[in-house]
Amino acid sequence: MLRAVANLKYFAHVRWFVWGGVIFLMVWTLLVEWHRVNEEAERTRVNLLAQTMTRSASALRQKWELENRPSHSQTNGIDYSFTHKGWPIILQDDHVDCVQMWNLLSSRQRPVDYLSLVDKKEMRSDLYNSCYFQINDGKWLALFYENETIRTNGFLTLSE
How do the pLDDT tens digits run along the chain, 160 residues long? Predict the structure, then answer.
């Protein structure tokens, strides 16, 4: 009798141990997959943001053409001018105002948040600086002018 009770307790412990192992394995698998899905979602977010900014710039250029190529315009309370080829630009002290360009192009409703901004003068353009917006850790969006034409590019960097 004592041996039968010990066997039942042993099997009960084994059963709880197996269930605990299965639950641990499921949670671990979900966490690994969540990380992968989250990374892909962040990459997609950067790409969509770059596309949104390009579409916004294209819409403002079309507006420039339809309004008979004015030198200045205003959208959502933001004043901006145009390059020689009709692309929107906001200059402050002969440099692209990156923050205002972000507000103008990132969203029509409410500007999207970014973590930090790096503003550099590069060889891409003799006249304009480039703007680099850090969306989150390791994911950036570049806004620059090349041959008087606006360009956007989402890219990834290694996390530090």
Answer: 546 555 767 777 788 888 999 999 999 999 889 989 988 888 888 888 899 999 999 999 999 999 999 999 998 889 999 999 999 999 998 889 999 999 999 876 666 777 778 877 776 677 888 999 998 888 889 999 988 889 998 876 755 4
Other CB atoms within a 10 A radius of the CB of residue 57 amount to: 22
Q: Tokens for 143?
A: 């806004």
Residue 158, classed as helix, strand or coil, is: coil
Can you list the pairs that 101-105 forms with residues at least 24 positions away whose Cβ atoms lie under 8 Å? 101/131, 101/143, 102/131, 102/133, 102/143, 103/78, 104/56, 104/60, 104/75, 104/76, 104/78, 104/80, 105/52, 105/53, 105/56, 105/57, 105/143, 105/152
Chain-centre distance for alpha carbon 109: 16
Give bridge partners of residue 114 from the DSSP assignment.
none
pTM: 0.74
Sheet holding 139-146, edge to edge: 116-120, 130-136, 139-146, 149-156
